[in-house]
Structures are given as C-alpha cells and as structure tokens.
Backbone:
C-alpha cells in the first residue's frame, strides 16, 4: 500500500512540474503584447496631437521623425469601420480636406485615408490582421514646405539616362538578378552593419519571384519569398516562417519597395517612382563597377539625402545605388549592388514558388514547429522538464508495480 501512495505522489509531483513549466514557458501572444505595450510603447506625441487627434484605443505606439515626415506606428483591436469613421468625422471638423478618394481594397484588407491642410499632407493607413488579431495602423504627417529645394537644375543628359533606364525595365521581356544591400550604421557609441541578399526572376507580363534574406539569419527557412503568377500573389514570411496567400496585386505590394524589391517595382509599376523624383542630377561620369562600364549620376531626394546611381552603358540597367541618410541619433550609408541579366531565358524552375525547396511545405512547417518548441525553453527549463518527467515515470512504474504485486499474491485457505 505504501508503495502505491509513493507512486501516486511521484506521478502527481512530476506531472504538475512538467505542466507548470510548459504553461509558464508558453505565455500567450496577448500577454506578450501587453508586456511590450507597457515596457516599449510610448505616449501619443504631443506635437502631433494638436493636428491629428489620437484614436482612443491605440496600443503599441512607436513615433518616429525624419526630415519633413512625422510618423506613428501603432495597433488597434477595434473594427475597421469604427476606426475609419472616427477620423472621417474628426479630421474635416478641424480643417482637413480629402486629398484624394479613400484608397481601399477591402479584399486585401488595406485602407488608406489621405488629407491635406495648407502645406501639410496626412496619410492614415490601416491593415487588417487575421481574425481576432490586432490591426496595424500607420499615421504619417508630411510638411511639404520642409522638402529639400533644388539649388540648381538637373543635367539634361542624366535625366535622359534615368528615363531610358526605367523604360528598359518597363519594356523588357524577362529579367534575372542576384544582389546585396550593405547598410552601415554610425552613431555616437559604435558602428555596425547589416547585409541583406536577394535574387529576382521575372517574365512579363505577370510572373515574378523575389527571395531575400539577412546575412545573419541562421534558422532554417528564414527568408522572404514574394511570388506572383496569373493565379495571384503569395508570400513566405521570414519572421513567422509561414505561408500567406495575398489578396493585393503585385504592383500594390511593390508600391513602397525596399532595396530587394526596387528593381521589381521598376518592372511592374508604370507610375512615377523615386528615380524620377530625384533632384539636382549631376552630369554623368564614366566609372567602372566590378568591371562593368557605367554612368555615375549624383543626386539628392526631397529629404535632402544624397544618392549615387550607376547605370550600365550597354544595357541601361541599374548596377549600383548608394544612399546617405542623416537621422537625429545616427547616420546610414546604404550600398546596393545588382548583378543583372535582361531579356534572357528564365526557366519555370526559377519562377516556381517553392519556398521550402524540395521539402514539402507541411513537413517544413512541422520542422519549424519542433525547432521553435526546442528553442522556446532554456537548458535549465529542459533539465527541469526531464527531471519532472522522470519523477512522473517513476511514480507510474511504482503504481503499476504495486498493482501487479497485489494481483499475484497467493491466497491461503483457513
């Protein structure tokens, strides 16, 4: 009898220990969000409050300021209709006018309100999250009077070269590249750098695959794949390492490109894009980039940042781009290099989505889940889990052993 009680005690103690460690180690996403809101989130900026009333239920507020722009990134759990109705009522009442019609793609879950007041432009965007999740909010106030004013006119030849470059991308039949963006950060403490690599395959009119990854990524399948074909657009996200079917068109997705998708945006967008908005274009100079003869063009953008473009002389495509930015607390120098091939044969294999390679996607997701479970606990936690599991197993064996011993005990006649 004592053996059975000891067994039950060990089983309960070990099982409770395992459950306790697992519960503590798997704090739900809502708890994590609440902690981040309390520790990292900042108050709604006072300099913005007078011009743009704060939405009452914003969480995770992160303000930023650069040149002529002041932005707030945040989240809300309220419905899209309630959020949009708040600003559609409040903003006209304090003198804001619609700059253009509301840009809304309900299926894509993307909503944008645009207003103006004098030299000020206001854009409020809301991106729907998954059901029950927070929605992402971005409020950007731009003072166009603070835009950099060109001190001298553009060089006509350089403007012509940029136009030829964009037309070359817009009219090509196919395109392929590999490349990298190296960004150097410098502040008062220590400099550091970030390297992002990418590769592109494109066949007109609508087949595109862009893959990008950070040099420091070490996890399996930790990269981004953006893919488009006649059936639609889809993405493999590097943060969650998961698949998403997208409702947005590829041109909408590339409307605000990063360096990995700069050239893809040239390939699919017909609208005015950033090279056409550069100012003070200097006279083109001949320079070699990795053995390729290019035209070098120095310029500035509307924020006053310095840009240098290297456009190949033979094919009129972008070979290298350098940008210098000066933030309040640090400076950056970003150098992007492309190794392009234009109007070449692109195989179906290059254009296939296949973010996990030869490994089926469900198996890849299972591998990722196992890896995340293993990494979600420290070594000490795993030792405790194994110790408690051993106690529970010992208790179970004690109980089973005591039952067997009782069942085989001989009976004596009186």
Residues:
């Amino acid at each position: 009898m004592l053996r059975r009680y000891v067994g039950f005690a060990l089983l309960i103690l070990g099982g409770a220990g395992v459950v306790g460690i697992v519960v503590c180690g798997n704090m739900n996403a809502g708890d994590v969000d609440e902690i981040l809101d309390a520790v990292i989130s900042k108050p709604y900026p006072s300099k913005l409050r007078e011009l743009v009333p704060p939405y009452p239920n914003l969480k995770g507020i992160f303000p930023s300021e650069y040149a002529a722009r002041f932005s707030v990134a945040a989240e809300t759990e309220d419905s899209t209709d309630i959020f949009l109705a708040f600003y559609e009522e409040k903003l006209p009442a304090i003198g804001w006018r619609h700059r253009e019609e509301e840009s809304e793609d309900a299926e894509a879950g993307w909503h944008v309100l645009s207003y103006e007041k004098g030299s000020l432009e206001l854009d409020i965007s809301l991106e729907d999250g998954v059901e029950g999740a927070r929605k992402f909010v971005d409020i950007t106030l731009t003072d166009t009077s603070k835009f950099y004013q060109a001190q001298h006119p553009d060089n006509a030849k350089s403007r012509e070269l940029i136009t030829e470059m964009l037309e070359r991308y817009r009219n090509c039949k196919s395109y392929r590249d590999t490349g990298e963006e190296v960004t150097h950060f410098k502040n008062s403490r220590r400099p550091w750098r970030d390297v992002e690599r990418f590769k592109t395959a494109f066949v007109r009119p609508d087949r595109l695959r862009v893959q990008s990854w950070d040099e420091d990524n070490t996890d399996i399948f930790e990269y981004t794949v953006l893919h488009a074909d006649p059936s639609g657009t889809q993405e493999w996200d590097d943060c969650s390492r998961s698949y998403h079917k997208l409702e947005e068109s590829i041109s909408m997705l590339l409307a605000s490109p990063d360096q990995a998708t700069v050239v893809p945006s040239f390939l699919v967008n017909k609208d005015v894009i950033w090279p056409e908005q550069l100012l003070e274009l200097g006279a083109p100079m001949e320079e070699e980039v990795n053995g390729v003869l290019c035209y070098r063009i120095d310029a500035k953008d509307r924020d006053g940042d310095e840009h240098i473009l290297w456009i190949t002389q033979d094919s009129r495509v972008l070979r290298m781009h350098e940008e210098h930015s000066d933030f309040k607390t640090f400076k950056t120098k970003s150098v992007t290099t492309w190794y392009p091939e234009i109007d070449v044969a692109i195989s179906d294999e290059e254009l296939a989505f296949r973010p996990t390679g030869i490994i089926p996607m469900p198996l890849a997701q299972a591998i990722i889940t196992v890896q995340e479970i293993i990494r979600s606990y420290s070594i000490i936690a795993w030792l405790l889990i194994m110790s408690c599991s051993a106690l529970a197993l010992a208790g179970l064996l004690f109980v089973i052993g005591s039952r067997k011993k009782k069942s085989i005990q001989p009976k004596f006649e009186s």
